[in-house]
């Protein structure tokens, strides 16, 4: 073993990159669940966003347009879930699982002609002055723009849910949709908008994998990231800042196991590869989660 091969500064910087796709998907799912909807199709929306973003980025030679295409693709797929659960009142758990399977199959079909193609480059930002600060600069201020977009979305989501009138309405719908309806709020409209936001964020998370982290298209490249995002929402007790902590925890374990493999750590690679997922399960078991939104997973019947 050669632990000198592990650079602590590079490890911490890589942590932020590894956490970003999980963070983007999880913050979208947090908003969806705060509206009282349980969408287990995050994995399907992420992989759909990955392939849509990759196709648009390759076709336009613009990673920014690729991310926009990914958000649109994820939102459109989430509309299917929203229509089935909010208008046809199908079971949310079963529909979410079906959405994941549908997304995996659809992405494999769409991406057949793009295997082996390299995505257009998405350069890092070296923020002037801040990026030159010893230790802190390389860790925090020398990343690609989407790392900071993810942090801004988390901050914006926190402010929206805590201070905005629309955010308070969304929380009211999630806590008790019958009472919210009695007060005159349009429950289905609020939930559909939340579902679309969740789909767009999941699409962005998927595109981050295919445009930044890899960057190329590979079938099944999300590799369970959507399920981790769902677990982190529960770990975070449906709070945005705890969500950030959970995403960075998973990103840290992911980067650490890769560095341990490179250092020749005397543990089979398969066990190291399992470690991020085992760590997520352990945290969920050990940590005491907060109370879920009161109407989470419940269908709304306007006629009642």
UniProtKB/TrEMBL annotation:
User: Where located?
Assistant: Cell membrane
Listed transmembrane segments: 6-25, 37-58, 64-84, 96-115, 135-161, 192-211, 217-236, 243-260
Instruction: Please give the Gene Ontology molecular function terms for this protein.
Output: transmembrane transporter activity
Question: GO cellular component annotations, sorted alphabetically?
Answer: plasma membrane
- Keywords, alphabetical: Cell membrane, Membrane, Transmembrane, Transmembrane helix
Q: Where does the secretion signal sit in this chain?
A: none
Chief subcellular location = membrane
| Coiled-coil segments on the chain, per record | none
Question: What's its membrane topology?
Answer: Multi-pass membrane protein
- List, alphabetically, the PANTHER family matched: ABC TRANSPORTER PERMEASE PROTEIN, SUGAR ABC TRANSPORTER INTEGRAL MEMBRANE PROTEIN-RELATED
Which protein, by its recorded name, is this?
Nucleoside ABC transporter membrane protein
């Amino acid at each position: 073993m050669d632990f000198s091969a592990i650079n602590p500064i590079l490890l911490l910087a890589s942590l932020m990159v590894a956490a970003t796709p999980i963070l983007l998907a999880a913050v979208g799912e947090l908003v969806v669940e705060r509206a009282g909807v349980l969408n287990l199709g995050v994995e399907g929306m992420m992989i759909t966003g990955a392939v849509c973003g990759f196709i648009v980025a390759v076709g336009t030679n613009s990673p920014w347009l690729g991310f926009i295409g990914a958000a649109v693709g994820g939102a459109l797929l989430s509309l299917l879930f929203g229509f089935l659960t909010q208008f046809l009142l199908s079971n949310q758990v079963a529909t979410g699982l079906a959405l994941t399977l549908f997304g995996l199959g659809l992405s494999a079909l769409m991406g057949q002609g793009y295997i082996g193609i390299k995505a257009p480059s998405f350069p890092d930002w070296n923020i002037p002055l801040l990026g030159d600060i010893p230790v802190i600069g390389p860790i925090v201020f020398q990343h690609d723009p989407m790392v900071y977009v993810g942090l801004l979305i988390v901050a914006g989501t926190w402010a929206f849910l805590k201070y905005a009138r629309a955010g308070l309405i969304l929380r009211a719908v999630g806590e008790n949709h019958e009472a919210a309806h009695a007060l005159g709020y349009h429950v289905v409209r609020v939930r559909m908008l939340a579902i679309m936001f969740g789909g767009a964020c999941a699409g962005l998370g998927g595109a981050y994998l295919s445009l930044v982290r890899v960057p190329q298209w590979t079938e099944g490249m999300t590799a369970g990231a959507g399920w981790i995002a769902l677990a982190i929402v529960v770990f975070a007790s449906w709070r945005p800042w705890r969500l950030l902590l959970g995403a960075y925890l998973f990103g840290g374990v992911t980067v650490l196991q890769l560095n341990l493999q490179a250092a020749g750590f005397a543990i089979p690679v398969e066990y190291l590869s399992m470690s991020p997922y085992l760590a997520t399960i352990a945290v969920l078991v050990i940590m005491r989660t907060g109370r879920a939104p009161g109407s989470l997973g419940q269908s709304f019947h306007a006629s009642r």
